[in-house]
Write a structure and sequence with these properties.
About 25% of the residues lie in helices and about 25% in strands. By secondary structure, the protein is of the alpha+beta class. β2 and β3 form a beta hairpin.
Length: about 80
């Protein structure tokens, strides 16, 4: 049985309500978001449970920075 799975999720980055709702639904099904990549989101298998998620944004972040900036680390 696979312990991880990858899915292409088509959410707007500004749809924080849709993203949190989707992640809570996935947790109830037994999948927890582990990593967000360029080509999809990676989930890992967990015991199905009711979890709450929150989405925050850090506007000064850049995908061109190789490491988190001091501001991102503090955030």
């Amino acid at each position: 049985m696979n312990r991880t799975r990858n899915r292409l999720e088509l959410f707007s980055i500004h749809d924080h309500v849709g993203i949190t709702s989707h992640l809570e639904k996935q947790a109830r099904k037994g999948w927890l978001l582990e990593k967000v990549g360029n080509w999809g989101w990676q989930y890992r298998k967990i015991e199905p449970q009711s979890l709450r998620f929150f989405v925050t944004y850090f506007p000064p972040a850049s995908m061109f920075d190789p490491y988190p900036s001091e501001g991102e680390s503090t955030f």
